Amino acid sequence: MTIKISIDCMGGDHGPSVTIPAAISFVNSEPGAELILVGMEDVIRAELKKHKADAHPRLSIVHASEQITMDDTLEVALRRKKDSSMRVAIELVKDAKAQASVSAGNTAALMAVSRYVLKTMAGVDRPAICSILPNQKDGPTYMLDLGANVDCEPHHLHQFAIMGSVLVAAMEGIARPTIGLLNVGTEDIKGNDVVKQTAKLLQADHERGALNFFGNVEGNDIFKGTTDIVVCDGFVGNVTLKAIEGMARFFKGVVFSEFKRNPLTMLGALIGRGALRAIAKRLNPSRYNGASLLGLRGLVIKSHGGADAYSYEWAIRRAFEAAKNDVQAHLSTMIAELMPRVPAQEEPSSTI
Amino acid sequence: MTIKISIDCMGGDHGPSVTIPAAISFVNSEPGAELILVGMEDVIRAELKKHKADAHPRLSIVHASEQITMDDTLEVALRRKKDSSMRVAIELVKDAKAQASVSAGNTAALMAVSRYVLKTMAGVDRPAICSILPNQKDGPTYMLDLGANVDCEPHHLHQFAIMGSVLVAAMEGIARPTIGLLNVGTEDIKGNDVVKQTAKLLQADHERGALNFFGNVEGNDIFKGTTDIVVCDGFVGNVTLKAIEGMARFFKGVVFSEFKRNPLTMLGALIGRGALRAIAKRLNPSRYNGASLLGLRGLVIKSHGGADAYSYEWAIRRAFEAAKNDVQAHLSTMIAELMPRVPAQEEPSSTI
Q: Is residue A295 less than 8 Å (CB to CB) from chain B?
């Protein structure tokens, strides 16, 4: 069976010059995929022609006359630009014409438009953003929330844990993924009240065999790969993720400048280029591009805004794999099973 | 004038085998310093003898019969082990026999014992932990709180900003250090209520020329060096710092394993060893060892528990510089000036 993914071709820092080549490359590598390219038809067509892919049988175009920029307010994204490529791409998911959507646009707008168009899944109070990070075990650590919810109650973090667990089970084929609760120490007495209450909820699920709760984890456990999933509120997650990204750029800058310092170090780099390339590959954030917006009535994957075509293709792949592994159905089942009492749907106090 | 520093020789993962060589090396490099070595007298004396420094005129010993371990509860640290090397070292500061104290012991115990013995500075509700991180401008970014206060109100973060500002001014000789408030975005509307209220307090100080408030900063700004100081609550600070440390270890592990992979990469590393050494030096966390416990009636510096002698010596240096630059007096003045209304002294809801 073919899996259809809608692509917001105009989103991100580079728009069609990145999204179209990525789409072509992906569709060529994946015979089971069909991609719907959403955006300005003439621009998309020209870009496809440039890559001699304008007659590809598994690439179609849906025209959208507007696009959401990085500076657009949520008001503009939601109420004014009703024919934006982002919104039209998500509407295709709502109308069951696509099984997932990918966008590199503004995160806050993507979350707001996705919530508005798709609505939140029954039993979920607040959708969350989940991404993956590399770890020392050469596997991925899934972390959420990364910024959709800056103020969280225990039941929100509890839901994040459930959603993360379902995602990892479906994507990685791990039957009972381990869940860590991000905290300032591993002992039960550590942390603030929200975290302590969350631990109790997760522990109760653990004891009745519903979730595999490891306990508290600390910041360094993300990279140790202590647990498959790290749960935190969106404030902590967002700050931590950006600090990690900043650190990686800083580190890369230092490595580059030192190997370029003089002819001898440059020779060392030349001879050791296999190592440098392997290092770059293992630490390449491209492989980890594609954050999942979890808890919506449809699959939406957010690519990094500055992604190149190689990196964007990974985001498309994540959308494809999520659809193929039926993440949505698993989420619905698990949430219906585990969510003891569902508080009335509420609006988030704030989103990034 | 000689500056006296008390050293908790028994603290940390390695105790006297690290603290004593570091003390000897520091006192030899700094003619204006006198160090008081606190701990088991016979152990200290034996270690000094080993390094032929048992007759050093600027090294003295104060015996303490107990030591606080990493596993000791706060109850034990505070009520039971009244003759611990940590406590005796801090009491020397209280009794004005030393101008600062250094310990590599358990952070929570060190903060609790310091608060108990020294008391909190007038006008300060809660002491905070401030450390430095390297940035792309090759300067330090000061960050606080790193874990003393997991739940913070706006006036706490406000006080952290004031204390950080005074510390940077005194230590780095920067007249008006810039203050960034850690948030999920730079716009005023971003973040949770605590952060938004804090921004208002800092903005008011900025407008009357009392503080140099830059505005909101994000996680990556820590490494960009966007501001001299980054202010956050202890939960966010602790998680972020540990994530950064974890990432650095992960990165280092990848670099090492790839350069050791085969004879060619090893040759590259050999020829490019100047670069590798420079990288290691620039990214060496040792240079940044020594976190300040700010807001107490006395200077206390916390070394990393796993510090080696080279790294521990940096922590002693920070204590020395802080005392030399009269950080305490500057703190008192600035806090008296800027603290508009002081809420009743309260106990922290939790400490790490």
A: no
Question: Residue B153 contacts by C-beta under 8 Å, 6 or more apart in sequence?
Answer: B194
State pLDDT tens for residues B244-300.
988 888 888 888 788 888 888 888 778 877 777 887 777 766 778 999 999 999 999
Select from A192, A270, A275 the Cβ nearest to the Cβ of B235: A192
Determine phi and psi for A215, rounding to 5 degrees: 125, -165
B218 inside domain: yes
- For residues A279 and B254, the answer to whether their CB atoms sit within 8 Å is yes
Tokens 């952290």 sit on residue: B160
CA distance A268 to chain B (A): 4
Look at residue A96 and give its three-state secondary structure. coil
Instruction: Report if residue A338 sits inside a domain.
Output: no
Q: Check: CB of residue A116 under 8 Å from CB of residue A127.
A: no
**A338 CB contacts (<8 Å, ≥6 apart)?**
A162, A205, A210, A211
On the question of pLDDT at B186 being above 90, the answer is: no
| DSSP calls for A124-181 | -SS-EEEEEEE-TTSSEEEEE-SSS-SS--HHHHHHHHHHHHHHHHHHH--SS-EEEE
Domain count, chain A: 2
In whole angstroms, give the CA distance from residue A15 to residue B180. 32
CATH number for the domain harbouring residue A209: 3.40.718.10
ipTM entry: 0.85
Q: How many residues does chain A have?
A: 352
- Kindly state the tokens that stand for B78: 């505070």
Range of the domain at A269: 128-285
Say which of A135, A221, A242 has its CB closest to residue B218. A242
Give the nearest partner residue to A224 out of B147, B238, B246, using CB atoms.
B246
